[in-house]
Amino acid sequence: MTRGEIYRTHHRVAERGDKPGYYVVVSRSFVAANDDVATVVCAPVYGRVLGLGTEVLVGPDNGVPKRSAARCDFLCLMFKSKLTSFAGSLGRAQLLELDRALAVALELDVAALAEASGSREPGASEKRPRRG
For a FRET experiment, which of 19, 93, 97, 110 has its CA 20 to 30 Å from that of 6? Predict the structure, then answer.
């Protein structure tokens, strides 16, 4: 499992009107790929596109049946075991859109963050996840 992958859950989710659905993995790949971590942060996919700055458009090219939107306003913690069916992945441009949508949803001042961090690469000092 890695950031930007889309999974379908067959479990009924109360927050989604007791319906299964699609989810985009938002957690960084270090967490998503780590077998010792049972959960990931996801953006739920909705069939109705509202045109919000916090949405990332997805569709059949990503393994979702119809044109839809991953909504970063409604991030949720999902057990990896409930993300039962791999559907597809976001493309490179969509990953950049995901970054932008997350920044909007979380009201991040991206310019200030870039200035404050200087040239430090995020996660550079972390160990790679174990594969088991």
Answer: 110
